[in-house]
């Protein structure tokens, strides 16, 4: 490597060392706890908001969002705008309720909340059903993170394809196994701070480069088409329908993703958890909108990128010096690592508390489960050939459609039965999957019909049960 490359690697290694230090700190603090209940973690609003924000960002923000801005232009902003409405709806009604119910039930997982209050046999069935859905969908989600990490190391340091994948995934698995849940929260919070700085740096740098060659910028963007800078190229009704779908996806993301709900369950109190709303929403919107605009401007600066999802690291390697490149490399790693780490912890907690503990009294520690899940997801991602955007959006929408209705019914204390809960999970997931397979997802995200059908299945089952009881009487 040249000296400049050595400096970039050094900055990356410092970030990596800080991440491992955060994991070790989380491990030390975890030893002081005598309970698996997430409420005993007692996280402040800053830890809740920033760790949830970093978890929610994922590889999608530094790869997929850049690619969408680069390819679609300003209309790509409709995604974060739609997501904002869903986040506002979720934070208005649910995080404090999730925390309150988690404290009451001593929940260790999202499925503990959904299944709480049911008889033993029904509770067991619901936990296993929800766990199966979580593991299937989150395997696709974390595979997207491994693919993004592979693209990151390949683009930043020129490592071979398979080595990049194995190296990135191995680093995440190691520090996840060390820190567990609390280590994940600490590492995510550190990585959120890095992401704020990296986002500002990236947007400022690309604007400066475009400004210095404004003639070339406008010439390059002209080739992208007349609608590249049009926010609503297909009209307002189509835009509203599109945003409605992503609002539903955001709503389902908050309610149905265990790596997110675990943060709300771990808040110090319902009020403290609720007060994290502006930290979370501000972080998500700032990073998402800024990286979309980065992709839009990048189209005019570097118009012939073969893989726009790798545009962030490619831009800095081409146009910036080693220090700034090293900083952005650290930022990309932190962003992808935050979600990968949280997903692994959530999957491991699901296996431990919702599968193994349900089936046998002998429950292993978390770290060997993390290692096994890491190896399985690595093997799967090595055989996948899909974009980060496709994998992420499919995984979160399908999981949200399956679990959000059951979670909503439980937190709001609506009527339910032993049968209505599993039926709502199955119906919501199936409806979303069929909607996506039909191709309608291009106009309305599958989370919207999935959540509606899931809720409908619960209420219809309850109504039929009440009618049957009335006839029997």
UniProtKB/TrEMBL annotation:
Chief location category: membrane
Superkingdom in the source lineage: Bacteria
Gene Ontology terms: biological process: sodium ion transport
Gene Ontology CC terms, in alphabetical order: plasma membrane
GO molecular function, one term: symporter activity
Residue ranges crossing the lipid bilayer per the database entry: 6-25, 46-70, 76-94, 128-147, 159-181, 193-211, 231-255, 276-302, 322-344, 365-382, 388-407, 419-435, 447-464
Subcellular location: Cell membrane
Secretion signal span: none
InterPro entries according to UniProt: Na/Glc_symporter_sf, Na/solute_symporter, Sodium:Solute_Symporter
Bilayer topology term: Multi-pass membrane protein
UniProt cross-references to Gene3D superfamilies, sorted A to Z: Sodium/glucose cotransporter
Keyword field contains Protease: no
Family annotation (Pfam families): SSF
Entry keyword Ubl conjugation: no
Keywords assigned by UniProt, alphabetized: Cell membrane, Ion transport, Membrane, Sodium, Sodium transport, Symport, Transmembrane, Transmembrane helix, Transport
Reactions this protein catalyses: L-proline(in) + Na(+)(in) = L-proline(out) + Na(+)(out)
Family: Belongs to the sodium:solute symporter (SSF) (TC 2.A.21) family.
PANTHER family per UniProt: SODIUM/PROLINE SYMPORTER-RELATED (PTHR48086), SODIUM_PROLINE SYMPORTER (PTHR48086:SF3)
Protein name: Na+/proline symporter
């Amino acid at each position: 490597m040249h000296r400049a490359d050595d400096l970039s690697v050094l900055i990356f290694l410092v970030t990596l060392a800080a991440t491992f230090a955060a994991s070790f700190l989380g491990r030390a603090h975890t030893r002081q706890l005598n309970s698996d209940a997430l409420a005993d973690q007692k996280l402040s609003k800053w830890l809740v908001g920033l760790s949830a924000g970093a978890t929610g960002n994922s590889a999608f923000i530094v790869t997929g969002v850049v690619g969408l801005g680069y390819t679609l232009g300003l209309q790509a902003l409709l995604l974060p705008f739609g997501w904002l409405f869903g986040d506002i709806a979720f934070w208005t009604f649910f995080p404090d309720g999730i925390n309150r119910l988690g404290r009451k039930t001593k929940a260790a997982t999202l499925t503990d909340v959904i299944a709480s209050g049911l008889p033993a046999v029904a509770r067991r069935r619901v936990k296993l059903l929800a766990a199966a859905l979580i593991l299937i969908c989150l395997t696709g989600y974390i595979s997207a993170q491994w693919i993004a990490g592979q693209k990151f190391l390949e683009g930043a340091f020129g490592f071979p394809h398979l080595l990049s994948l194995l190296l990135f995934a191995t680093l995440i698995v190691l520090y996840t196994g060390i820190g567990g849940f609390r280590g994940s929260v600490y590492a995510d919070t550190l990585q959120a701070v890095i992401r704020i700085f990296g986002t500002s740096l990236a947007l400022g740098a690309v604007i400066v480069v475009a400004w210095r060659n404004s003639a070339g910028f406008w010439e390059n963007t002209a080739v992208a088409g007349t609608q590249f800078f049009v926010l609503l190229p297909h009209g307002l009704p189509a835009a509203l329908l599109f945003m409605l779908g992503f609002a539903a996806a955001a709503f389902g993301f908050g309610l149905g993703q265990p790596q997110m709900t675990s943060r709300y369950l771990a808040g110090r109190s319902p009020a403290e958890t609720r007060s994290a709303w502006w930290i979370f929403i501000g972080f998500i919107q700032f990073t998402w909108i800024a990286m979309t605009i980065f992709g839009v401007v990048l189209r005019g600066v570097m118009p012939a990128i073969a893989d726009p999802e790798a545009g962030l690291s490619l831009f800095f390697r081409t146009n910036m010096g080693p220090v700034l490149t090293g900083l952005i490399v650290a930022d990309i790693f932190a962003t992808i690592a935050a979600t990968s780490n949280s997903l692994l912890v959530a999957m491991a907690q699901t296996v431990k508390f919702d599968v193994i503990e349900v089936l046998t009294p002998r429950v292993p520690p978390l770290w060997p489960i993390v290692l096994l899940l890491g190896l399985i997801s690595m093997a799967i991602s090595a055989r996948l050939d899909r974009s980060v955007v496709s994998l992420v959006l499919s995984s979160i929408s399908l999981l949200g459609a399956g679990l959000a209705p059951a979670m909503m019914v439980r937190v709001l204390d609506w009527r339910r039965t032993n049968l209505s809960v599993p039926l709502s999970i199955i119906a919501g997931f199936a409806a979303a999957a069929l909607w996506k397979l039909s191709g309608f997802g291009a106009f309305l995200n599958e989370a919207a019909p999935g959540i509606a059908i899931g809720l409908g299945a619960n209420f219809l089952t309850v109504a039929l049960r009440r009618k049957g009881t009335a006839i029997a009487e």
